[in-house]
Amino acid sequence: MCFYLNFGCLWCFVGACSASCPNDCSGHGKCEKGKCICQQDFTGSDCSMRFPFPTECSQELLNGALHSGEVDIYPQGREGPAVRVYCDMETNGGGWTVFQRRMNGKTDFYRTWNEYSTGFGNISEEFWLGIELLHNLTSVGPVSLRVDMRSGNDTAFAHYANFSVGSEEKHYTLTLSGYSGNAGDSMRYHNGRPFSARDKNPDPLGIHCSRSYMGVIFIYSFNNNPLYYLWIDWKGKDSSIPFTEMKFRPSTFSPATHG
């Protein structure tokens, strides 16, 4: 005789019953009486989640999100608010948190310091995530930067193994090193330089990049003009680039082993 102990019991043997677990605990736990007992570093009802409060997109990828799109992250962890971001889960292994995109010229990037601090635009189209958030996200550990560009049928990218943005007190100074890619190292001129906006220029050299190019960014070889950006080492100083996307992920992330 079989005595069913709970509604989760699916079959029985020798007078006892066995309950199933969701997704067989995803291979990361042990099923006991219909409940997953998760291994270390995994959580959730089916043990599929490593990071219940992901702080950036590589953690969301490790949680099993394999498609690019909008997700909520928690830069301050469990205690902080959610922030909506766009994750690139496909380029070079995925796990990239996108913080800037230009694609059609519909969004005005000639903005004030406060607007660049808090962010603007539509994260599924053209946008700037916010440099204060970018400072926070790049300060918790070593991260790498990738810039993808497209002009007509031509594509190029620049990768920097080390990337960070200073605090507002330090004028969001850019720090980067370790270039690789096929676009050319146009950001080399701007390592150690402060951020500037149309209404604020803390550059000690007095070069107001955002006014000169009707836009704002860390650099003057990748500056925003009324429509698009320039990347001098790839297309020269007279050719703007219609599509640009800037993104980061932890430097320790390995595309070959994220699964």
TrEMBL record:
Q: What is this protein called?
A: Fibrinogen C-terminal domain-containing protein
Signal peptide region: 1-19
Q: Which PROSITE patterns match?
A: FIBRINOGEN_C_2 (PS51406)
Q: Which residues form the Fibrinogen C-terminal domain?
A: 48-252
Q: Could you tell me which InterPro entries the record lists for this protein?
A: Fibrinogen-like_C (IPR036056), Fibrinogen_a/b/g_C_1 (IPR014716), Fibrinogen_a/b/g_C_dom (IPR002181), Fibrinogen_C-term_domain (IPR050373)
SMART domains according to UniProt: FBG
Concerning CDD domains, the annotation shows:
FReD (cd00087)
Q: Lineage of this protein's species?
A: Eukaryota, Metazoa, Chordata, Craniata, Vertebrata
Q: Which GO terms describe its cellular component?
A: extracellular space
- Pfam families cross-referenced by the UniProt entry: EGF_Teneurin, Fibrinogen_C
Spell out where the chain crosses the membrane. Answer: none
Q: Which organism is it from?
A: Periophthalmus magnuspinnatus
What keywords were assigned to this record? Answer: Glycoprotein, Signal
**Which Gene3D superfamilies does the record associate with it?**
Gamma Fibrinogen, chain A, domain 1, Laminin
